[in-house]
Specification:
Keywords: Heme, Iron, Membrane, Metal-binding, Oxidoreductase, Transmembrane, Transmembrane helix. This protein is an alpha+beta fold. It has 19 helices and 13 strands. The protein is 55% helix and 9% strand. The N and C termini lie far apart (107 Å).
């Protein structure tokens, strides 16, 4: 009997000791976790982690804009992301110009986007960035190249975009305008930067499948940046599981598209061509270094396809709500462009000052890239007094900056192109107040080309068609604020369903003639 009691006592003691060890270990782990950057109980971090912000705001960018407006310095901290977010122009200039070397893209950013963008210009620093920027600058900066690009875009507008809209006018057909602009900008980018017509590509799947893969890869890559514990997505990638497996499959399709672009460029020859891809191919010593060329292609597809399509989509979303702006645009087009011209000439595009202002105003409210992040190399203090520790992600939020009263006045939420005009001429603002095209050393090289492409499309489409966004009652979003999908660029969740009608004033319709 005594032996049984002693055995029970020993087992109980062992169990008690084991439980005590477990409790101590859990307490230790909890203490360690609480010391980590992803553990924070402040209201902002709690709202971010629990997603409770979604009860009041449709979009994460709107919540950020609200927090930044409430902050006296227009700077906030998301501790669980180790991220300092600012809408202060002085801080933006500090990052992009005054202390540029202390705020590179950084290795953490490169790791997040490395699988998709590789060593492309948007994902590197130092010498690789300088080399690619120099090459791209030579391609995009010349007047002859800009004229060639203008002709290529005008050809796409006349040959594909306008006929598509013309067909859609019959029978009240509903179009996803966002998808239309994505296809258009992809075709234009292929001609301008790669010297290829997408129709010549020999692909095993429809182009729509590759476009969907590109969008999915962008969305899942962007999701990585929102994770409070990067170890989670890194482990999933190692195990090829869940969202990381989907990302890998999507990138596989994107790689096939890039491979075919490289193959066709080699097949047609590149030594005597002046497109961007040919220039890089001529500088790569090893013909087998297709991975580097692939990274360049993906980066410029992201810049040329997604940003232009995003800007055009949001522009027509706003235009459908402001018929007065549409009328003013038509008045200017009729005044500048000949009556019988389908598209504006290269010189005429520069005279479309109101159109230029309307584009800038649209991107103030809905920038194609809503925010951009850098990583702090050494401890620093921002102009507003915010201390930034080494390794901190520092983000300037262009979307929020477009909604600051002290920057744009009490009517900052309104769509008013005239705020950009002085005596009828376009009057730009500081790039640090309006960082849609970045600023300083990293200012967007494709800015002028993107504006040319958008003005060409807007002048041609607005002159001939009325674009009506489908109302919420019909399953569209015409009466609601836009809801954005997760991605590296701003895209509308569910697209932009529209109906297109020919302009009622038949006398205003130009002939389908030469440019």
């Amino acid at each position: 009997m005594e032996e049984a009691v002693e055995a029970c006592r020993s087992r109980f003691s062992l169990l008690f000791f084991s439980l005590a060890v477990v409790v101590v270990l859990l307490a230790t782990v909890l203490k360690v976790l609480r010391s980590m950057p992803w553990w924070c109980s402040c209201p902002v971090c709690e709202a971010y982690v629990t997603n409770s912000w979604a009860a009041r705001f449709d979009n994460l960018c709107d919540w950020y804009a609200h927090l930044l407006r409430e902050s006296p310095t227009r700077t906030i901290h998301i501790h669980v992301l180790r991220n300092t977010v600012t809408a202060n122009p002085d801080n933006v200039e500090h990052m992009l110009r005054a202390h540029f070397d202390n705020y590179p893209k950084g290795k953490p950013f490169s790791a997040i986007l490395g699988d998709l963008l590789g060593r492309g210009i948007f994902n590197v620093d130092g010498e690789p960035w300088c080399f690619q920027r120099k090459m791209a600058s030579a391609e995009l900066g010349g007047a002859s190249v800009r004229f060639f690009a203008s002709c290529a875009v005008a050809s796409e507008v006349r040959g594909r975009l306008l006929p598509l809209l013309d067909v859609a006018c019959g029978g009240g057909r509903v179009l996803d305008l966002q998808d239309v602009f994505r296809r258009f900008s992809f075709d234009s980018m292929c001609k301008i930067s790669f010297g290829l017509d997408p129709g010549c590509l020999e692909l095993s799947l429809p182009m729509s499948d590759f476009a969907a893969a590109f969008d999915k890869a962008s969305r899942l890559s962007a999701w990585r940046a929102t994770a409070t514990m990067p170890l989670v997505w890194k482990a999933k990638r190692l195990l090829n599981w869940g969202s990381e497996r989907e990302l890998g499959d999507a990138i596989g399709l994107v790689n096939l598209l890039a491979k075919e672009l490289i193959r066709q460029r080699r097949k047609l020859g590149f030594s005597s061509n002046h497109d961007l891809l040919s220039r890089f191919m001529a500088c790569v010593d090893d013909d087998d270094d297709d991975k580097y060329l692939r990274d360049i292609i993906i980066s410029f597809l992201l810049a040329g396809r997604d940003t232009v399509a995003s800007a055009l989509t949001c522009f027509f979303f706003l235009l459908s709500r402001h018929p007065d702006v549409r009328s003013a645009i038509r008045d200017e087009i009729d005044r500048v462009v000949e009556r019988d011209a389908v598209t504006a000439s290269y010189d005429q595009l520069r005279d479309l000052q109101y159109v230029h202002a309307a584009i800038y105003e649209s991107m103030r409210l809905y920038p194609p890239v809503q925010f951009d992040s850098k990583f702090c190399l050494e401890d620093d203090v921002l102009p507003d007094g915010t201390a930034v520790r080494r390794g901190t992600r520092v983000t300037y939020h262009a979307y929020a900056m477009g909604r600051m009263e002290e920057l744009w006045g009490s009517d900052c939420s309104e769509f008013r192109p005239q705020r950009w005009l002085r005596n009828g001429a376009f009057n730009p603002e500081s790039p640090y107040k309006y960082p849609v095209f970045q600023g300083g050393v990293r200012v967007c090289l494709g800015k002028d080309m993107a504006l040319m492409e958008m003005k060409t499309v807007i002048a041609a489409v607005v002159r001939q068609f009325d674009v009506e966004v489908i109302s919420a009652d019909e399953g569209g979003g015409g009466n609601r604020p836009p809801k954005f999908a997760t991605g590296l660029t701003a895209s509308l969740k569910g697209g932009l369903p529209v109906r297109v009608r020919r302009r009622e004033e038949s006398s205003a319709e130009p002939r389908r003639g030469a440019c």
